[in-house]
Amino acid sequence: MEHAGKVGFVTGGSRGIGKEIAVQLAKRGAGVAVADVRESDVGEVAGELRRLGVKAEGYVCDVSSPEDTERAAEAVIEGFGRVDFLVNNAGITRDKLLLRMSLEDWEKVLSVNLTGVFNVVKAFAPHLLKQRTGKIVNISSVIGLIGNAGQVNYSASKAGVIGLTRSLAKEFASRGITVNAVAPGFIETAMTGNLTSEVREQMMGVIPLRRFGTVTDVANVVMFLLSGMSDYVTGQVINCDGGMVMA
């Protein structure tokens, strides 16, 4: 129960990687505030977390909205009294080749994946800076490092998260707050579950470990970055990709 008495705020926490991160935090004794855009989903996950014996609440929050994130931050501080961990996991895709991509496709992905991280950190920053302790983990992607055809919006947003992470790490270090990013590769989720066997085999060909990752693989890296073992680690990007990107 290494995180007993601490509180984590996880965006995109109703499914996939975000939900697993929330579960792992709860198993370590932390109170968990789960945020997502679907009220029924966050309520269900919060119920699951409470059954693990911790305080948990669900918050409907569109991270692309400064008003939503401000309201969520105020509610979390009021309800839990503090926040120690921010995990910015919320993200979307609108994959298309550039010539077919609309400005709306571009702006929507950037507003959730990148501006959403800015909004959440800005909303909680006064509390964290006053507290003079805390850990922030932003979920990027290997696509933000290497790019991918048909994903210029997603790739740009995730590359932006890396730049934002490194800049925040320098801004917040003097207050004892670490800021790091995790860049997952191909992870077994609902999205990858719909891939054809041919596409899956093609993807396996670029992964030295010859398997897709699991949400637990990613959550384990996040747990390290939220633990005391990473107290001297900040401004870093850790790939969780089976060796796909080694540069």
- CATH topology-level fold name: Rossmann fold
Assembly classification: single chain
Return the CATH architecture: 3-Layer(aba) Sandwich
Strands side by side in the biggest sheet: 3-2-1-4-5-6-7
Major sheet summary line: 7 strands, parallel
Beta-strand content estimate: 15-25%
Q: Give helix and strand order, one letter per element, not per position.
A: EHEHEHEHHEHHEHHE
Radius of gyration: 17 Å
Question: What topology does this entry show?
Answer:
Elements: E1 7-11, H1 16-27, E2 31-36, H2 39-50, E3 56-60, H3 66-80, E4 85-88, H4 103-113, H5 115-131, E5 134-139, H6 143-146, H7 152-172, E6 177-184, H8 197-204, H9 215-226, E7 237-240
Parallel strand pairs: 1-2, 1-4, 2-3, 4-5, 5-6, 6-7
Helix pairs in contact: 1-2, 1-9, 3-5, 4-7
Features:
Rossmann fold; alpha/beta; 7 strands; 9 helices
If you had to describe this structure to a student in words, what would you say it looks like?
The chain is α/β, with parallel strands linked by helices and 247 residues long. It is 45% helix and 15% strand. Strand 2, helix 2 (39-50) and strand 3 form a beta-alpha-beta unit. It has a single domain (7-237), classed as NAD(P)-binding Rossmann-like Domain (Rossmann fold), CATH 3.40.50.720. The relative contact order is 0.14. It starts with 6 loop residues before the first strand and ends in a 7-residue tail after the last strand. Strands 3-2-1-4-5-6-7 form a seven-stranded parallel β-sheet, with helices on both faces.
